[in-house]
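Researcher: I'd like a candidate sequence for this fold, 93 residues long. If you have to choose between options at a position, lean toward the conservative one.
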């Protein structure tokens, strides 16, 4: 995985949420939070009692609080990315 996907070389990555779940059998191949904590537009939240794709399903009243929190984090991140992009766009006009 390291060689194929670039391993921990994320210095040029931006605007990504690497969601992980503590029930994923491949969690060890996920991106750890420590790797992205210094890059503002990257995050790696862990969905307690969930899998990495649970946050991508439509919301359900029975969703665990952990997935609701991760969805909120993702929504806030996307809002920031759009705000940053629109600010960059305004500065070029």
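Model: Candidate sequence:
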């Amino acid at each position: 995985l390291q060689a194929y996907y670039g391993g921990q070389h994320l210095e040029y990555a931006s605007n990504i949420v690497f969601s992980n779940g503590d029930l994923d059998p491949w969690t060890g191949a996920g991106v750890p939070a420590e790797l992205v904590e210094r890059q503002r537009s990257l995050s790696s939240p862990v969905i307690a009692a969930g899998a990495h794709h649970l946050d991508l399903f439509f919301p359900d009243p029975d969703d665990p609080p952990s997935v609701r929190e991760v969805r909120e984090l993702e929504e806030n991140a996307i809002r920031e990315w759009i705000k940053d992009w629109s600010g960059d766009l305004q500065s070029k006009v």
